[in-house]
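Hello, quick one for you while I still have it in my head. A protein chain has come my way and I'm curious about its shape. Can you walk me through what the tokens say about the fold? No rush at all, and the record is pasted right below.
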Amino acid sequence: MFGAAAQLFLTLAGVSLLFACLQANGAMEAAAQWVLRRCRGRVALLPLLFFVLAALLAMVGPGAILSVALLAPLAMRTGVPAGIPPFLIALMIGNGANAGNLSPFSSIGVIVHGLLGRGGLGGHELRVWFFHAAAHVLVALVAYGLFGGLRLGWRAVAGEVREAAPLGRAQAVSLGALGAWMLGVMGWGWPLGWSALGMAVGLLVTGQAGWRVAVGKMPWRVIALVVTISTGVGLLERAGGLQWFQAAVAGWSTPATVHPLLALLTGLISAYSSTSAVVLPAFLPMVPGLAARLPGTDPLALAISVNIGSAMVDVSPLSTIGALCIAAAPEGVDRGRLFTRLMIWGFAMALVAAGICYVGAPWFSA
């Protein structure tokens, strides 16, 4: 058990350090600015662009939270002067980041797929990511239609995005290293943690990023929480606690209702706590045993329901993603009203996620 915890720590630390290097030397922000500058076009397209850019950053970067931290100030500074409601900007960024969050190359995707692999559900990375992303795409498109996206018109953006400076040598080398790492993992089966750590050390030794800044940008609290909770869940399993919880949930559920029930339960908890550091490490290990107690229930489909339910509520201002969007709102935006709207939306998403998982469960199965 403690060997598994050490391996989990190595993987998380290696991937986090690689992305911290790109954040420390400005490579991620430079890439985001370049894309915004090239694609800004028409106002009505900007919310959709924010969604796609957030998804891309999370997909090949440090996960949803740090991607929102990077993109939210740029998007708010660009979108609000162009007449885009800040509530819509927050929803597009939050859902976009979550859509890319379970990529096998994201630091959060590493956590989720590692937990699934330890439960015997490995090898379904693309399927897990696809359905998770599809749920957020659906919700984002509904939000775009409901909250002003279709009314923005096709006038050109006035020029709120600053001219993108050319990539510096360190930034270009870092982005090249990121691409090489992804290619190595996909094409040659490089070990995820060790290869990321090797790339990061190479960038640091050659001076492409500073040691102190990069190490300081690593999400040490999240890494510690994930490893600690995963270890605690392992101890709880040995003590019989997981079996008790599985029996309790199985007693309330049927194979048809367990998906929305678990999505609702994880959503309500995740609305005011950490999805990646608390909810997923606590609930995903319970999935195989719970599915075994309900004949006909696919554990992979149940795991996808946990992922969707816990992430859909993350735009709540009590969660980090929602709080970052509020903090990034420029002067003149009513942050109290934005807080209230995100709070209502976030908790409503627990019910929406339950509905999506009830309808989608037959398709989630492998």
